[in-house]
Write a structure and sequence with these properties.
By secondary structure, the protein is of the alpha/beta class. It is built from nine helices and nine strands. The chain has a nine-stranded mixed beta sheet. The longest helix is centred in the middle third of the chain and has 16 residues. The chain binds iron/sulfur cluster.
Amino acid sequence: MFDLLKIKAKQQKLLEGKQLFDVEISSRCNKICSVCPRHAFTRKKTDMSVQIFDALLQWLPMECHVMFAGFGEPLLNNDIFACIRKIKSIKPQISISIYTNGILLNNNTIKKLLDCGLDWIQLSVTDEEGFVIAQRTLEFLSSTDQSDILRINVLYRDDDDFCRLKEKVSHLFPDTIKQFYFKKIHNRGGALYNYDYREELKTCGTFFMDTFIDVEGNIQICSNDINGINKIANIQEMTFAQLVKMKENFLGNIQISPLCKKCSDEYRVRHFNEV
Ligand code: SF4
């Protein structure tokens, strides 16, 4: 039996804590990954315009974390460097990271991103190409004594896959193993595959600490809603304070949207349990 008061208290704590914004600076992509339901993606494939980004920057709270992520590759938007600079000059308390497949990540790009003020790089490794990119990125960052800013997410399917990949990482990267994180592939709200309902995944912390802003400035209910079917509003129509009020109405809920019943994302519980 779930203790709804306990759930509400934890969700409230997450909502009052530092907020994370997944900003989809590009919805175009340069890779087909087995872990991403791009085949079902029907939203506009484009880059976030300067006007939308500027409006978003005004909209964001003074202190939060922005992660350039979403259903596209952030480095495809050439404005990303200027965007990072703008954030750091207008709202310097905001920390910034990118979540990238790394194809466009070379020494010059890394240097430029860091010069602009980027705080962290998150690299997604889903195949052999990902390991090659991880190796060259680590080599460069280690040579400049900055390897701590890199987090390498290795995605695995099941327990066997986890053991195989862990062994591979220990063998290939014995000195930098602490940079690696292993993440179980989830079904993106049912878009990737169906899953058997699990009682322990019944609640969600993600919604209360994370907001997905898509390439057109729409506030989506969750980054798992790939086509924005349950869109909340556009940033032009709702302030951040109004969004927080709206989220307060969901405190104590174990399901946020129709997607939640189909969602196998274990992070929803991990975030919840961290407070
Ligand atoms: S349960 Fe899953 S789909 Fe629902 S809001 Fe949380 S992360 Fe998103």
